[in-house]
Amino acid sequence: MPSRSSAGVQRALNKAAVDRLMWRVGFGPTEADRKRYQGRSLSDVIDEMLEAPRGRLQGPPPAMELNPAGDDDQLVLDWLDKMMRGNQLNERLALFWHDHFATQRAEVSPPQLLTQQIDLFREFSDFAGNPRAKYDDFIYAVGEGPAMLRFLNGESSTPSALNENYAREICELFALGVSDIRGIPNYSEADIREIGRAFTGWVIDDADPDNAASRFLAERFDAGEKTIFGVRKAWGHRDTVDHVLKRHAHARFLITKLWENFIVTPPSPATMSDLIRVYRRSKYQLKPVLRRILTDPMMLESVNEPNMIKPPAVYVAGLMRGLGLPIVDTQPVRDLESIGQVPYFPPTVAGWEGGLEWVNTNTVQARFNIASRLLARPEIAVKDPGEQDGLKAFRTAHAATGRPWLSRSSSSVLLEYAKATARDTPAQRVDLQLLLRAFMLGGPDAQVM
Prior knowledge:
By secondary structure, the chain is mainly α. The chain has helices at residues 4-10, 15-25, 31-37, 42-51, 72-85, 88-100, 112-123, 135-144, 146-151, 165-175, 189-198, 237-245, 248-262, 269-281, 286-294, 312-323, 331-339, 361-375, 390-400, 408-420, 426-442, and strands spanning 202-205, 213-216, 226-228, 231-233. It has a domain at 382-447. Strands 1-2 form a two-stranded antiparallel sheet.
C-alpha cells in the first residue's frame, strides 16, 4: 500500500492544484496550462517541467523592440517578456538565483555583464540541457563571472589591496549562513580574510561588452598558504569553494532557501534529513533536490486557501501572461518600482526580503492600480455583456479574468454587490464588469498563491 505522502503526490491535480503549481514554479496559469496539467499527478507534471527544453518564446511578442543593452528600462522589460513567454520553471529559477546571488545594476556596467549572468542562471536551471548541473560548478562560474567580480570588487582584489566582499558573501549568503541551527557562528573573521586571499587574481576583459569575459592572472594572486576553517595550505578559488561546501551547515542552508521559495511551512526534520541526503549523495546536483522539494505533498498544502504572497515580478508577469497582454511600453517597469521589485535592482547584497515585506498600504493600493490599468488596455477592453442578472455578471467577470482563485467571503461579497448594482444601461454594465474584474485581479485574494 502506498504511503499517504506517495498517494498525495500521485493524486490527480485539479484546477486549484494546477494554479498553485503554476504560480509557485512559474508566472501564473493560463487556460492552456490547466488543460495540459489537470488530471495528471504532481510528480508527473514536475518531471515534465524539469525535462522541458528552454525552447522558443511563446505568446504575443512585445509591440516594441527590446534591446537589453540599450537602457535600463529595456533591460528589465526584456527579462519580463521572457518571464511571460519563456520556459516557466527555468525563468522562475533564474529569478530565484538572481535573488540568491544578488547583483545590482547600479554597481555593474556594462549591462551585458548582467544579462550574461542571468543566462548563467538559466543554464544551471535548464535540466534538459544540463541535467547534472551541480551547485559547486555553479558557484565557481558565478564567482569567476564578470558580473559578480565587478559588483563585489573582486577584480580589484590583490595581495596588497585585499577585498573581502565576495569571501564574506559566499559564507554568509551563498553557502553557509551566519550561524548554524544551534546559533554557533559558521565562520570567523579570520576565515573571511583568508578566503579573500584565495579569491584574488581575477580580472575582467569587457572591451567588447557583448563578449565580456574574466580571466585569471597569476601575478595578481596571493599564492601563499592560508588557514581556512583550520586547514592550512595554498588555497585557490575552486578548492576553497569545495572546502566551504563541505561544511556541515551548507546543505541545510541551501535547501532551506530553496524550500522557502516554493513552500511556506518548514520541512519536517525527517524531510530535511532526506533532502540533505539526496543533495549530498548526488554530490551537489540541483535537479534531484529540486525534484524532491517540488514533488513533496507540502507543495499542495492549503491549496484551496493560498498561503504565500506573490512576489511583485511574479504578480506583474502573471497578470500580463494570464490576460495575454504583450509589452507595449515601459509602464511595467514603473509598476514593478511601485510594488517593490525591479529585476536587476535588488535593494541589498542579500536580495529582496520578501514575504510579508511585499505588502503594505502603498504596495497593496499600487497592485490594485496595476490590475485596473491592465484591464483598460484596448486589447481586452470591456464591452457591454448585455442584459444579465447578478450571478451571470459575476461569472462573466470571473471568466474574463482567467478564473482566478477567490475566497468564499470574497465571492459572496462580489456576488451580492453584482446583484445589488444597477445593470440597466450598457454603461452601468460595463462599469460593473470593470469593478468586478479589478477586484478579482487586484484585490487581496489576487496577492496570494
